[in-house]
Amino acid sequence: MAEILVAYATKMGATKEIAEAIAARIRSASHEATALDAAEVSSVEPYKAVVLGSALYAARWRPEAVRFLQRNAPALARKPVWLFHSGPLGADLSAQKAPRKVRELATRIGADQPTTFGGRLTPQTAVGFFAKRMAQGSMAGDYRDWDAIELWANHIAEQLVAAR
Ligand SMILES: Cc1cc2nc3c(=O)[nH]c(=O)nc-3n(C[C@H](O)[C@H](O)[C@H](O)COP(=O)(O)O)c2cc1C
């Protein structure tokens, strides 16, 4: 079992790829890290630290990410936890405020509010009627900033070393 869990909630795969990049970066800093679908994690007890990321849809987190936070809140309160969400597309990639429930849960477990990473919406990956329509528009594209994601993961890896 890996030391560090990077859990994700995705609909169209972009957030999963971000989670996998974060886990890979943490691994290259000599920690065991695994990226898993948040819905498939039954307990966080075995992990020393947890990263959780959700895609943003209509300003909300995916329900499985919110459920993950609710279900595991007592255990997460005893561990280092980092949160992110993936969403903004187009010219304005500014930080997005998490929904109120997520903000409250973050406070409850003692984690910082989620970091925002740009999202991806492309005709090749879009799932569902609205997404496919939006993917034909001017906002479509892959706005994930892999340098920013790596920097953030490095920052986590450094804190994990300091906590050893
Ligand atoms: C119908 C729809 C609604 C969306 N709503 C938001 C939103 O409210 N805020 C945001 O930042 N991004 C929003 N997005 C962009 C997605 O969150 C972005 O494409 C994200 O990276 C998708 O992640 P996933 O591939 O992991 O599901 C929306 C996309 C779609 C298709």
TrEMBL record:
Q: Which Pfam family, any one of them, does this sequence belong to?
A: Flavodoxin_5
SUPFAM superfamilies attached to this UniProt entry: Flavoproteins
Q: Which domain of life is it from?
A: Bacteria
Flavodoxin-like domain location, by residue? 4-157
Output the InterPro entries linked to this UniProt entry: Flavodoxin/NO_synth (IPR008254), Flavodoxin_dom (IPR026816), Flavoprotein-like_sf (IPR029039), Protoporphyrinogen_IX_DH (IPR052200)
Q: What is this protein called?
A: Flavodoxin domain-containing protein
Give the organism the record lists.
Lentzea miocenica
